[in-house]
Structures are given as C-alpha cells and as structure tokens.
Write a structure and sequence with these properties.
The chain has 99 residues and is an alpha/beta fold. The chain has five helices and three strands; from the N terminus they run αααβαβαβ.
Length: 99
Amino acid sequence: MANDKWTNPQKMWDERFAQAEPVYGEQPNAYLRAQVHRLAPGCKILVPGDGYGRNGIWLARQGFRVSAVDLSPVGVTRARKSEQAAGLAMTIEEADLAN
C-alpha cells in the first residue's frame, strides 16, 4: 500500500500513541478549557477520539462523568493507566466510531 496511514488509521494512531512522550502534551485542548464553563457541573460528557485521555482525564478532575472513546488500543491502554494513576473513575472504550 502506498500510504497505509490513510487505509489503516488505527495503525497510524497506534504508532503515534506508542511514543514515550504524550503526542499533544498532558494539558487539555485549549478550546475545551475555554468552553468548559458552558457545561453543567457534574454532567455526563462523551469525549470521542480521546487518544491517551488527556481531555477526558482533565474533565473527570473537574467533576464531570466522562465516557471516552478511541480507535487506538494503544491510546486506550494509556488512557486507562492514566485514569488509574490519577485515581479517577471513567468509562474508556476502544471503538471505531466510523462504523
């Protein structure tokens, strides 16, 4: 295949999330931080494409009930480890939301 990342996005994300350093850092997305005030305290939030969990974990620390989903098993494993290390309770699932 000429460009496997386009035909197999899971592989591309697995490779990206397998890097030792967090790909996008550990802080949540700037837009999320700027807009979180619009969310009702303690509400349920779905975080699609959460990768290694940086946005979902930040939201859980703010008191939201978080369900995170990602295509990459590598990202999901990292998110679950981070969730445990932080002492948080989230729902983290591996799924291809395109299907």
